[in-house]
Amino acid sequence: MPPTRLDDQPAAPSRRAAAPPATVTVVLVARDPHDTGRLLGSLLSQRRPPDRVVLVDASLDGLGDTDDLLDPVDDAGIEVLRTRIGTGTGSRRALQRVVEALPEAGQGRDLLWVLPSRAVPHPESLDQLVAAARPGVGVAAPKLVDAEAPRRLVRFGIQATRAGRLVPDPRPDALDQGQYDELGGRDLLAAPLEGALLDRAVLVELGGHLARLGEIGADLDLGWRAQRAGHRVVGVPGARVALTPTAAEHRPSGAHRRQARRAAMAHASLPTRLLRGPWLALLTTLTALGLLLAKRPDLARDEISQLPAFLSPSSYRGTRTSPREVSRSHLDALFVTPATARQALADDLRGERGADGVDARSLEAERSGGWLTHPLPWLLLATLGMSAWAGRHITGEMRSRLDAGLVGGELTGGRATSAQLFDAWWSAWNGPGWGSAAEQSPAMLVLAGLAWLVEHVPGLGQVQSPAGLALAAFVVAALPLAALVTYLSARTLTDRRWLRAVVALAWVSTAPAAAAVGEGRIGPLLAIVLLPRIVAGLVRAGRPTGTVADAARTALWTALLATVLPVAGVAVVVLGLVWLLVGPVGRRGRGVTLALLPTLLLGPWLLTLQEQPRRLLAGWGATDTTTAAEPWRLALAQVPGAPHVWAWTAAILAVGVLALLVPGRRPLSWLCVLAAGLGLAWAVGAPYLTLGQRPVGSSDAGASITPWVGTGMLLVVGGALTAVLTAADVLPQRLRRERRALLLVPVLVLAVAAVGSAVTVAQESFGERLTTWREPRPTVAVDAAEGPGATRTLLVQRAEDGITYRLVGAEIGPLVRDLPTATAPTPAEQGVADVVAGLLGDGGTTGDAAGQVLAEQGIGYVVVTGPTEAERRVVDATPGLVRLGTSAGTTTWTVRPEGGGGQAPSRVRVVADGSPSAVDVSGGHGETDGDVPVGQGGRLVVAESLDWADHAEVTADGRSLDLDHRSATPAYELPQDADEVAVEVGVGHPWWKGLQGLALALALYLALPVGGRPRRPARTTDEERDA
User: Fold this and answer.
1) DSSP β-ladder status, 79-84 and 109-116
2) How far apart are CA 286 and CA 396, in angstroms?
3) Residues of the domain holding 195
4) What residues contact residue 362 under an 8 Å CB cut-off, 6+ apart?
5) How far apart are the first and last CA of the chain?
6) Which residues span the membrane (predicted)?
7) Based on the domain organization, do 930 and 963 belong to the same domain?
8) Which residue, among 116, 163, 84, 505, has the nearest Cα to 341 in the 3D structure?
């Protein structure tokens, strides 16, 4: 029987013999014959079949003869009607025409199920929707899922804020694992028309969709008005309708966002619309600018696309008048809260609202065998176990005293807070003792940040040396952290997880790595952590698909490493210049980034490197004294004094050589050979390259300083392991299939060598060179140094080859050994050296002059380690020195010079009529906290070197004072009417450091990836296709 045209159909009851309590009419909006036939077939498979089918021909050229499509439906006893609409008529307008022309059901409720031809409902869908459409329900909404991936959600209702911001939940493409089934029967704000079951009476009562608001806007408006009229919009998770989603259904388009905004504006009162529009326009513009600054152009485009909704006069029109049985406030629970909307935007900004989400990742882990078969936990367990057992002496020392850090090896120890570290980097005059004008490494600023974190750890209490504790924690955790970074960074070269884990274990269990931990070599340890990340960044930046963001992130890590190991920065800057000069056009911008950013981030410290270029080969813990070792051991990366793992390292290097023989074009392999060659040359030649001598006063004064051989060994091992990772994914498929067993041999050799090396390191340990740092000064001396007098303490110790001494005050010294600053001895320093020699019986200044010399330099205490009884008697007999006591092998004397009125020496003092009076000091190197009251007249004397005066400003009552050049220490004549003085140490290169901060901000901004959502096949909506 041919179908009847809807326009000619008289009002007559359904042909079905037994009409159900509700009559369901399917409104099928057909645009493609194939899709229409598929949809009609799914309707026939419904457990609860529809009563009527209205075929709405909305195709461009017409569906043609539809008898073949509709005959099976008619044969099933389902009444079939047909109509055609114009190509410019959307689904909402078509529904309105169908409602007007469709005969009413003879009994029960009249329900309309709207389905586009691209939809395929699940057999249970209609039954679930009808069951949910109880009296009082105006719209029942199914789950819309992706036809190609039925477990992927497309939409489940429409979620928006009261201001009209769309916040889809569930997010499109989210994996459906039943997490939204609990929403069944709950009210929704609105539902998309596709797949929705509508009560015809409610639709007529509300006047249908407001077509001028567009697709999403009309659906949102209809659901909003239905809820206000007392007709619920409910979600039915058991009803699933699969459809081929459009691009706008994957993510709301700009048009949909404007439509939702207009719908929300239409539901506000007129005064609210007049105020909300300009305010939202301003807020949207600011949000878009912020997203642009965050390098999220797609998100910014989404925001900008909403502006016409606030600027167009038509947006200020109200919605259609409908019954209002429910107050506005009772609908608050249906809207997305502003806080949730902000969190969703923040998640989009961070890129954390992926399609799969946490649940999808958990399923992926289950399908892949879970964490037990994942190599990362086993890698971390192995490296943690190796570090814990090999560092048993270090951790044992730290357990006895946690708050002081470590000393020994390359760690010198000492008190250092975050404020002191910042001042040392910021001030123009810094350093221990008499100080110097040398610019400090930016690593001081990084360490200050870590010390600040330590100071604010809850429950840790008062820490003697926050910076020392931070360094100790890094030494203990460096190798497990390096293993994690290596494993993650190796993804750039290969996806083979177990190979990456083996390479990471081999990297952290070498002799240079163990020696770096055992000797507290901060620079090489940071290289072990960061070099894999830097190499991976260079590989990504060098690819044709590389970006400036890849180069910027690599430049940031390089700059951080260069602050403690300058040679790393030199290598990357040179590579950047090569890319700039001879690289492809696309790579030149990345070359500029690599060459420029690390240079700018090092700031004024470049002046120190320029004045002392030998520092380029040194670094924090990257120097050593001349060490004799066989060249073959150095070639096998066997550091003198480290665990004996040279045999395991030889196996690792052999596998690396085999990896270089794998056929295939791999430019990175040649770079591995170059790096290994340079590293070998460094390791063999470093003992013969003298950078300087240990300073006078140190335990090994005069010893030659050379670069540490382990730095070159790290390049040798790193080059071999990188070659292995590079060859893993370029092996020809033919070899993989035919010689799989042979290929397992080098992999097993590498794994056995890595495990064997780790076990050997754990057994032989990191050594016992590091111990807990202890304050060598008595408490009274520490309090005096940190008090208003800022007195210094002279620490003296007799060694086998002479006398060592150092001057300790409130200023911090180097916590890690580096190339010492070469400065000419000052008269004050020479005078103190003579006093030390005289006190221990080696000639020099004795008698009345000794106490006076010490007092003039602000030295309030003398501490001698392990003095003999004869030496104690000599010091006791020195006028001006009074013994305080003996403790822990040290004897302390306080300085009370004759003529000082019994007062303790002070860093800054006013001398009037031969009598000194102390001036309160609050900062390093004699700096006062603003104006300090003084007596009238006299001379202001500062216990610093004369060079200090070139970087300090001394004022009296706001007037600058002139330096008295006749004095051996800085002295200033005070005016007779002077009431207050101020001593201020200037800032070292303030403009350059400001530029350094701007460079850091620029680097962080460039390092942000340019946001963009995944590209999907464009598919237009029905209305867009017609347009």
Assistant:
1) unpaired
2) 55
3) 118-351
4) none
5) 36
6) 467-486, 498-518, 525-543, 555-582, 645-663, 670-689, 709-731, 743-762
7) yes
8) 163
